[in-house]
């Protein structure tokens, strides 16, 4: 029976209960306000982050975990495990996955297998939980990786932001796209494509953007197959609860959770962003 450890980074935004229940190990990314660096979920909570960005003139930047932190974590896991699967946010928006690869090559005594989720937040968490459940059953690395690749084909996620400038400033969206959005007051529906955040469709208002996300969701939910979904919000808990209630009322085949855009991803998307991620869980 294989003994595989599951590692992810803080941008999966999994609850402490889930991390403990599935024995998942995490490594934090950080937000930087001026000279001060805060590891998300350790030195700074999400609620504190959204309070702090109201008080500062200059928006924070973000940073990936140092190579040494990865090596230290992997070496500590070598004492208990035979192998590690390390699942991280998209390599198109962060160097975290590349750092995990470098660390994997540097560590002795344990095989480390980094996995690029090509996405972030709750959908990244889907990969992590799937891997952890299978690791607990004693599946080996190849079996778990095969399942993750299969899952990749079924995960869908769309989101909308209040202001495209955050994404543009952080280099996560091209200048032309940001400029067009600001000039026309467009509220585009965004998604990940080829590991990058790109507009899926340009919509004029927030309401229309949200309705379009619902339509995309209905393409899968309307089949009647069991769906696992997550409403994701950037400091909009009441609106997230409304979205959850609305979808639960319409579909009885959907299990819906609520998650959030924490400090690192919130820095790039901005307060007020909303998203919906899901996959057909019965396949």
Annotation keywords:
283 residues; alpha/beta; Rossmann fold; Hypothetical Protein Tm841, Chain: A,domain 3; 2 domains; 4-stranded parallel sheet; 11 helices; 13 strands; globular; DegV_domain_contain; lipid-binding; DegV_C
Description:
GO terms for molecular function: lipid binding. Keywords: Lipid-binding. InterPro entries: DegV, DegV_C, DegV_domain_contain. Pfam families: DegV (PF02645). This is DegV family protein with EDD domain. The protein has eleven helices and 13 strands. The relative contact order is 0.15. Helix 10 links the parallel strand 11 and strand 12. The chain folds into two domains: 115 residues, Rossmann fold, CATH 3.40.50.10170; 125 residues, Hypothetical Protein Tm841, Chain: A,domain 3 (2-Layer Sandwich), CATH 3.30.1180. Helix 3 crosses helix 4. The two termini are 25 Å apart. The strands form four sheets. The protein has a four-stranded parallel beta sheet with strand order 2-1-6-7, with helices on both faces. A four-stranded mixed beta sheet has the order 8-13-11-12, sandwiched between helices. Helix content is 41%, strand content 25%. The chain is an alpha/beta fold.
CATH class category label of the largest domain: Alpha Beta
| Share of helical residues | 40-55%
Largest sheet: 4 strands, parallel
Query: Which outline best applies?
Result: globular
Number of domains: 2
Low-confidence stretches: none
Topology at a glance:
Elements: E1 4-9, H1 16-21, E2 24-27, E3 30-33, E4 36-39, H2 46-55, E5 61-63, H3 67-77, E6 83-88, H4 96-106, E7 111-116, H5 121-136, H6 141-152, E8 156-160, H7 165-169, H8 175-183, E9 189-193, E10 196-201, H9 206-221, E11 227-233, H10 237-250, E12 254-260, H11 263-269, E13 274-280
Parallel strand pairs: 1-2, 1-6, 6-7, 11-12
Antiparallel strand pairs: 3-4, 3-5, 8-13, 9-10, 11-13
Helix pairs in contact: 3-4, 5-6
